[in-house]
Design goal:
243 residues, two-stranded antiparallel ribbon, globular
């Protein structure tokens, strides 16, 4: 057995020399896969408490447990809570873009490892935000599904990849106000198999959270199908200057 393992270990060492682990942010050589260099690590803003119990917007001071921010009090969101691993910034953006458009599929695991601590303790089902079939065909993969698969490996919570379907391609939401974003995604998602989410504590997985119009449309569909809870978990979220 030891003799059989020796060539494998030697091959692994050669691969490590030829293709050393690199920082997901800048590409510098690091000591292990999915590790950031010190510079990129320090540039990431990790999110957590104190924060709004509903949308996860960070508070400057600890206001006590269970508090909501003013926007959530004025207009409660369609979901039961949102969390993100990091704030959207240069390093977080670059990692997301490398996965989304650069074909760096291993970065889904990098994201999942840092998102895992925010996964709801009562989660019973992971549902990735779906892509329209045209975009899926051109890109070749759904980055949200890859992240969900990574989270499933870490947590043991199963992934339901086909309960939600995006029935029409939506225009880019960048530059739209909240009302136009909501109009753009209205009716874009349908439930394919409602029975799979009935009574489940669903965690909707996405890469980047901006206005929330897309996940809100998905959350409404999941709740209408009978999901007991719908929370959102993403890699990065845009944090305003007042947060």
């Amino acid at each position: 057995m030891l003799l059989a393992r020796a060539p494998v270990a030697a091959l692994n060492r050669l691969v490590a020399l030829a293709l050393p682990p690199r920082c997901p942010g800048c590409g510098e050589v690091v000591e292990a896969d999915h590790r950031f260099c010190a510079l990129c690590w320090s540039a990431l803003r990790f999110l957590g408490d104190p924060a709004c119990v509903t949308c996860g917007a960070p508070f400057a001071i600890d206001r006590g447990p269970g508090l909501r921010c003013a926007p959530c009090l004025i207009r409660p969101p369609a979901h039961d809570g949102l969390r993100a691993a990091v704030a959207y910034g240069p390093v977080a953006r670059d990692v997301a873009l490398k996965l989304k458009y650069g074909g760096r599929l291993a970065l889904a695991t990098t994201m999942a490892r840092l998102m895992h601590r925010h996964l709801a303790s009562d989660a019973t089902l992971l549902v990735p935000v779906p892509l329209h079939r045209r975009r899926l065909w051109t890109r070749g993969y759904n980055q949200a599904l890859l992240i969900a698969a990574g989270l499933s490996r870490l947590s043991g919570v199963p992934v339901a990849r086909d309960v939600l379907r995006r029935t029409r391609a939506t225009p880019p939401l960048k530059g739209m106000n909240g009302r136009k974003r909501a109009q753009a995604v209205r009716g874009a998602f349908v439930m394919v198999d409602p029975a799979r989410v009935t009574g489940q504590s669903v965690v909707l997985i996405d890469d980047v959270h901006t206005s929330g119009a897309t996940v809100a449309a998905c959350a409404r569909g999941l709740r209408a199908a009978g999901a007991e809870r719908v929370t959102i978990l993403c890699w990065a979220r845009v944090v305003g200057p007042d947060d």
